[in-house]
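Can't paste images in this forum, so I'm doing it all in text. The chain is below; anyone willing to post the predicted structure tokens underneath?
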Amino acid sequence: MKKTLALVLALLMVLVVFAGCDFLRGNTAKDQLNVYAFTDEVPGILERFVELKGLDEDFFNVTIVATDGGAYQNALDEALVAGEVDLFCAEAAFIKKYAENPLVADVEKDLGITKAEMDAAGLAPYTVDIGINTAGELKGLSFQACGGAFIYRADLAEAILGTDDPDDIGEMTDSWEKFFDVARELAEYDGEDFPNGAAIISGAGDLFHPIDAGKAQPWVVNGNLVIDKLFYDPAEDALDYFEMARILKQENLSNQTTDWQDAWFADFSGSNERPCFGFYGPAWLINYVLAPNCGDTFGDWRLAVPTVGFYWGGTWLMGVKDSKHLDTVADIIRWFGTDISDDGVQAYWATRDVVASTVIMDKTDAYWPILGGEQNAFDIFVPACKAVDGTTLSAYDEKLNSLLNQQVQSYANDEKTKDEAIEQFKLDAKEAFADISV
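Text version of the structure:
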């Protein structure tokens, strides 16, 4: 897996070098529309826009830079200042940074995309909320919806819990207390079919997105750091994120993996010593990560309503207000974000993934083979996306989430007390952001 990723990144770097040199710069005289993206997903869809509008094949001047190490943001920042961007992609991890940028077009005022259009498309509210800056301006729209579900193995559920029905599993895990009761039942099972029992999740990091989405306020409010009790509660018996990670480790309820590492991928296929029961994730985790890595467990997976409504990831399209192609930029963002016709992006994308428009999903079936072909994924994902709160995302999240998880791991590993870990987190937060009060 690592070798494959290394090869892909190496090839991508070659493409990026060309994108920044004579190959594409020589074409800018043709009045191209400059697009920045971190994957080939949006640029690939834009090829359809060229066909629909009868544009020249080289109308778009595309630069793709991977997000690793902040490379994409660095390249995008330079291009924005230089006036070399018309349209760009942002993901949840850093969209708030660009929503505050005065160079970025207001979706309603500058692009003319109305609230009535958004309402008619039935956009999942959180996908709109995330694109709004602190001044109340909407700066980006998404065509994806990355609301999450609890993705579990039906064969393990039937053998150990006595049912694989999504409604039953959802009810069994609809609170964190009940989740840990199920975790202990899975771990203690010693039948011939699964002699080592099962881990309820792969690692503590798999809990982070649902817990993070449940917080009541953003990390920073009026310049002050706010630590929600879901993350840290000083009461010794509080079931906060620190305690959850510690329980998973001390009671051996997870497989103690780290997401995106080899052992985590092995839990998709059940090739670790002990099988993994489930993951919290959105549709892209199922179709683009689980499916190609699940081996013999393909078809055994099902979806249940998650313990807490949450989202993970997403791509937002944003325009530059001084673009000489502003009308076309508006057409593109409308085509991605609110067009619910058969020629719109979301009608096409819904055949493979969850989209922002509930109108599109309500008239589309999603009987994916990886889910056994018997469960309509949209029956879970439509309400899941409606349940997400997008108002607590802030420009500080990417860094603070990383710093918090480091300290949670230290506590789970008995390297620090909970109070010591949270004090270190505060120090790290202050060092990372001089503008916040801790």
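DSSP finds 20 helices and ten strands in the chain. The chain has a mean pLDDT of 92.
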